[in-house]
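pipeline stage [seq->struct] | target=Glycine/D-amino acid oxidase, deaminating | organism=Neorhizobium galegae bv. orientalis str. HAMBI 540 | residues=430
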Amino acid sequence: MMEIGSLWEAITPAAPKCAKLTDAITADVVVVGAGFLGLSSALHAAKAGLDVVLLESHQPGFGASGRNTGFVVPSLKTSLGPAEVVAALGADHAGRLLKLVAGSGRAVFDLISRYDIDCDAVQNGWLQPAHSRAAEEVLHGRMPRLVAAGVDAEWLDRDAMLKRTGLPSLHGGIRVASGGQITPLAYAYGLARAAISAGVRLFGDSPVKSIEPDGQGWRVRTAAGEVRARRVLMTTNALIGNLLPELRASIIPARVFQIATQPLPRPLRETLLPDMAPVADTRRHTFALRWSPDGRLVTGGMVPPLPGRMALARRLFANRLRRMVPDLTEVRVEYSWTGMIAGTLDFLPRMMRIKPGIDAVIGCNGRGVALTTALGREIGPWLAGRMADADLTLPLTAPRPIPFSRISGLGPHLILPVWEARDAFEARFR
Ligand SMILES: Cc1cc2nc3c(=O)[nH]c(=O)nc-3n(C[C@H](O)[C@H](O)[C@H](O)COP(=O)(O)OP(=O)(O)OC[C@H]3O[C@@H](n4cnc5c(N)ncnc54)[C@H](O)[C@@H]3O)c2cc1C
């Protein structure tokens, strides 16, 4: 059996049905995009007393939120220490972002338990082993600053990491206890249900076509309806299209591929990632692996920009899996799918004031499951006027276009062979 499609769609029970917007309505705030960020922001804005309309082009979780690997990662890219974050955001905002990220794993699992979201949540930590001895040293050197930033990280030596992963080629590394894994589409549907029950009017199949000035506020038009509101929050991630060119130009969109194997025998599940803690190593082209709730291995990454990329992805990632998991005798790829991430040059998310009353949060750089949830938790009260702009975690800045942003997404894919060659050399000789 080979399915072309997402494993998460196959195993997640039906979505809450979100009807299309066909009327002219009003609201306090319109949120555009029902991924984790839009859903968490809308939910928390409604909880803070606002009348919220959430508009989604397709159905909740259509974007990266329903297609990701489901790793709950309560840390920024580990190469981003306090100094780099301070240089990018200034000392105050850097301190707030590091604190928010350190608590973001707990934010996800708390929300899941508060709203009783059935999404196969497992909070048994997130693992980052080194791929070489040299990388192990560098990672070990970063431990103190992770701990200083409030991340509940512990160091595992090579033997301890082997027990946790069952992957003999990997070295020692970090375990962040408050991390874990979820089934991402089920989490998106659960957030959507929570938002609807908090009073959010969530419309699916309602792509926003234009946003025009309307007195003191904005008129947000879809193909068949419109919403008038004082405030608009853009949470479209990489799928922004041509709606707001200045927002589109401020990110590097990159395509990521995922595969899932056939269900694997139980003895393997007892030695490979036995705690169901997901693993992502230090390679430039990260090797990431997790179990699905139905006993499949899920992995993925980027693929060079060649024709037939999905077929290539299936072949490349199945081969990588065979190399990394020695006990895996047979790999059949039964599901494969793809999604888009929104990158930034410094790997940090951004909050932007596009125009007075239109704000956007974007650029979660492939680490957005926990981060978007945690950001949404403060954006809700902020939209309700309970928090000043100056107190936000991220500074509210003007959009900063990235040169050649439209084709910039090709960059990581083009450089992939170089990264992989360096990763392989280091894993073997360093
Ligand atoms: C393959 C893959 C694997 C990943 N793995 C992980 C992981 O394991 N852990 C992790 O932390 N992060 C991971 N990420 C990143 C993570 O998924 C994202 O950072 C996060 O889901 C972003 O959420 P979001 O709400 O900002 O955007 P999205 O989920 O992309 O939501 C944006 C939504 O906006 C809608 N939209 C766009 N334009 C319009 C419009 N004009 N009108 C109405 N709606 C519109 C889209 O349809 C979409 O539903 C991964 C990403 C990918 C692609």
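stage status: PASS
auto-comment: The chain has a mean pLDDT of 94. The CA atoms of residues 360 and 371 lie 15 Å apart.
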